[in-house]
């Protein structure tokens, strides 16, 4: 993965993590939106680690 793609992916991860925390605080950790964002975050992190 080139440096630019990696940086772009890191930025997406940062934004998803921030959104997940916001949802967790406002809607709860077990809310379907929080869980959905958490799964998206997992996919992004896995992509970065490949």
UniProtKB/TrEMBL annotation:
It holds the Pfam family SpoOE-like. InterPro entries: HLH_DNA-bd_sf (IPR036638), Spo0E-like (IPR018540), Spo0E-like_phosphatase (IPR053028), Spo0E-like_sf (IPR037208). This is Spo0E family sporulation regulatory protein-aspartic acid phosphatase. GO terms for molecular function: protein dimerization activity. One of its GO terms (biological process) is regulation of sporulation. It comes from Salinibacillus xinjiangensis.
């Amino acid at each position: 993965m080139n440096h630019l793609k990696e940086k772009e992916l890191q930025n997406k991860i940062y934004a998803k993590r921030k959104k997940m925390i916001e949802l967790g605080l406002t809607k709860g950790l077990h809310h379907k939106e929080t869980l959905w964002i958490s799964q998206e975050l997992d996919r992004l992190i896995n992509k970065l680690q490949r």
